[in-house]
Design goal:
Layout lengths: L3 E6 L4 H12 L5 E7 L5 H9 L3 E4 L8 H14 L4 E4 L8 H6 L4 E5 L11 H8 L3 E8 L9 E8 L6 H26 L1
Parallel strand pairs: 1-2, 1-4, 2-3, 4-5
Antiparallel strand pairs: 5-6, 6-7
Helix pairs in contact: 1-2, 1-6
Amino acid sequence: MNNKIAVLASGKGSNLKAILEAVARGDCCAKVEVVICNKADAGALQIAKKAGVPHVYFINPKDYVGREAFDAACSQVIQDADCKLIVLAGYMRILSESFIQTFPQHIINIHPSLLPSFIGADAVGDALRYGVKVSGCTVHIVTKELDSGPILAQSCVPVLIEDDHASLHARIQEKEYEIYPDVIDKLIKDS
C-alpha cells in the first residue's frame, strides 16, 4: 500500500502538526513523505523537520517565472517521492490548472467554512460579517474552481455572540484537527 503523502503549507503548520500527531498515535495510516512550503518563515518547515519528515523544502515562488513554473517544480518533487495524495494544509496559493490535472482527484484541502458558503481567503471573517449561527470546516477534493470540489467531510461549530475572528477560528481549527487526519486515513485505505 502506498501511503505516502505530500503536504503543502504556507503558515504555522497546525494542521500538519495534527496530521503528524495522528500518524504517531496510529490513528492515520499516512506517511508524511514530503512537506513543501512557499514561505521561508513558515512554522510548518520546523514542525516537519522536528518530526523527521524525509523531504522538507522551502520552494520560493519568486525563483520561478509564473505560477505554472513554480507548480511544476513542486509537482516534480512530489512525483519523485512517489506520493499518493497531496494535502493542502493552510496553503495560501491557488494551484495552477496543470498542477491539478497532474494529480486529478488526488489533492485535498481543508477550508474554514461549511462549503459551499464562504469560499476564499477570509471565510471566518465572512461568516462573522454575514451573521451566521453555525460555521465549521470542510474537507474537499481540489478542482480548478476555487473551494468548489466534491465535499469529503464537514464538521460544525456554533457561532457565539461574543465570537471574534480569533475565537471562532480557534474552534473551527479544533474540528479541522479531528476530521483532516480521518479523511486522509480513509482515502488511503479505500484506494
